[in-house]
């Protein structure tokens, strides 16, 4: 994919400057590094990872990239000694490196930092492209799917733990801390877990505050501390009877399950999204197609992997699904006066169907 | 600070495009948003935050920025309907927005994404600058200091918990997981906590592996899950008697306390660093001034806040301290054959002195 992109754009190198918090960088290098490092891959198969002196030995041991250089190896400290500031010394080091490799045209990803882009563009023909690794990450290997399964199982355990807690504890913050600590102890990092009672639930990204009443959206998307892979799961737990909420929830459950039954290789994500809209509209709810500010106001889903949100989009302008993709299906309905509901599963796309990784009953009522 | 920068560079706007994982964006907007959003501030005081439709109401409620627009408000969706891809629609929306505001020259920070930089540079004069918010973040408000105090107290609790554990548990990974889980349950996220026994302790960034023996560096820098603020603390715990280590530790304790006694408004960070070097050199240890690879090989400290490492540097080329800054003081000594030691406190700079936020005895011996 990278080689055809380089050929296509008549470029010699694709480069990234990022830390491993950047999923594409981590995927490309298979290396965990907390500070930004430089990665280049050439049309002739050359690959080089440049790290600080301190990280060099570890990179040689742990990274997939075979050729490792330290900034020192490339003359960075000589420039510092000449009195240059760190940023100028850094950009000059990389420019010299690329010149040594006879680069004329270079591709950089969308999120490449401006300070380096600006200097490279003064020396080379630089084109900004969508990161090809983001496309390569869409279809998962069996090993990656195992990682996502592993987190999915931890999620189901955490949800069961949450349901027990909810019988006696109703403070959002306490619930969130307890659930996240439960996962953390087991090796999973969950952040911004949504535990949103009636009042908070009308806003899809409100993580929830204060006392949980009426019903609660539980939306969790932890990553494994070891592998970095995520999974994503939502259930709405009904605490007190409320016909409006139950009707909304039933419509979302029907939409989710119909959508999941459509998932297989070859179907377009947009068709799944529009089917979800059809179902919700048939019950009188408004959707993204009416550009409403209430109702179903987000996409049906997204890919999941090293990032919680990654390609493909299950939305307007979606793409054809391929076996091995891992996606979420998550219809929701939000009304300021009533509150919000959402149900979500993470599923693997297969040749002729799909596999749900986050199996749990859809309708959850407290105390049943 | 931003207005003078804009005036200085003859620019009309400073803009950021980032999520709240970016400390400067979070600081500027006082808003937590997981996906990238657009922030602009003008030389006339105009301020605007552009978010997705879904985040608009929450942004209006929670963000410090008064004027909020959604992408839809600015015509994004019309461009999508015309068949433009999301990225082109996005960049065009922002370019039109800036033109409406009569922008001619725009400042962007170092880490501004290349895809947007490239398009803006085709329409405006764009200059890459160090993010002015990074300078504004240096002096903390009383509220920010309270947040850092809160984490500092949690750290002291975690260290006491660690000391008890250490009496029966000596595996670095187990100790790290237990301490980090202890904090997580209480609402604090500690990552890469250094629990480094004799063998690992010689490398300042080695988090420690295997069995802890001889002595152990405990270095922790959690952030509050709620506020995002960090604190930073290190103690070296002596497990077995070792004269070389104890001598190094005593020198570091003296250097730390002398340095802290110098901290007050008006002193330069460089003077503090050089005083630390003086003391360590007086005991025969090598320091950064000799460019040695052993001895005192890092800076004396750094600012702490929304990031663990932020401005100011307490090092060569440091700057004058101001009341309200929160900094670390952390002399350490590292010798490959002997191991390393370090002691560190986080302190608030005051008009005529300082306040230590991480109060704990300096010399810690196991079992005392």
Automatic annotation (TrEMBL), chains A, B:
Top-rank taxon: Archaea
Domain Peptidase M24: residue ranges: 147-350
Swiss-Prot/TrEMBL keywords: Hydrolase, Metal-binding
Entry keyword Transport: no
Pfam families xref list: Peptidase_M24 (PF00557)
PANTHER family in the cross-refs: AMINOPEPTIDASE, XAA-PRO AMINOPEPTIDASE P-RELATED
Family: Belongs to the peptidase M24B family.
Official protein name in the record: Xaa-Pro peptidase family protein
Organism: Geoglobus acetivorans
């Amino acid at each position: 994919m990278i080689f055809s992109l380089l050929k296509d754009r008549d470029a010699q190198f694709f480069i990234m400057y990022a830390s491993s918090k950047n999923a594409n960088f981590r995927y490309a290098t298979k290396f965990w590094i907390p500070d930004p490092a430089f990665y280049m891959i050439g049309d002739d198969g050359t690959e080089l990872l440049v790290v600080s002196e301190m990280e060099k030995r570890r990179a040689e041991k742990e990274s997939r990239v075979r050729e490792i250089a330290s900034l020192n190896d490339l003359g960075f400290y000589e420039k510092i000694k000449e009195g240059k500031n760190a940023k100028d010394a850094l950009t000059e080091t990389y420019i010299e490196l690329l010149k040594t490799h006879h680069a004329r045209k270079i591709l950089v990803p969308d999120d490449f930092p401006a300070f380096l882009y600006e200097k490279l563009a003064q020396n080379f023909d630089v084109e900004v492209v969508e990161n090809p690794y983001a496309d390569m990450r869409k279809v998962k290997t069996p090993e990656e799917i195992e990682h996502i399964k592993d987190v999915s199982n931890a999620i189901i355990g955490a949800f069961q733990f949450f349901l027990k807690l909810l019988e006696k504890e109703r403070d959002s913050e306490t619930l969130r801390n307890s659930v996240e600590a439960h996962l953390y102890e087991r090796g999973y990092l969950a952040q911004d877990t949504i535990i949103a009672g009636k009042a908070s639930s009308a806003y899809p990204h409100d993580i929830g505050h204060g006392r949980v009443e009426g019903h609660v959206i539980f939306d969790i998307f932890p990553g494994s501390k070891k592998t970095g892979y995520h999974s994503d799961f939502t259930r709405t737990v009904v605490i007190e009877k409320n016909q409006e909420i139950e009707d909304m929830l039933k419509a979302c459950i029907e939409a989710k399950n119909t959508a999941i039954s459509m998932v297989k290789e070859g179907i377009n994500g947009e068709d799944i999204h529009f089917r979800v809209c059809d179902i919700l509209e048939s019950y009188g709810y408004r959707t993204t197609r009416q550009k409403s500010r209430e109702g179903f106001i987000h996409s049906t889903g997204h890919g999941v992997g090293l990032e919680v949100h990654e390609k493909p989009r299950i939305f307007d302008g979606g793409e054809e699904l391929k076996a091995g993709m891992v996606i979420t299906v998550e219809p929701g309905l939000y009304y300021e006066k009533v509150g919000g509901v959402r149900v979500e599963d993470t599923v693997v796309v297969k040749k002729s169907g799909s596999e749900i990784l986050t199996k749990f009953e859809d309708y959850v009522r407290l105390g049943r």
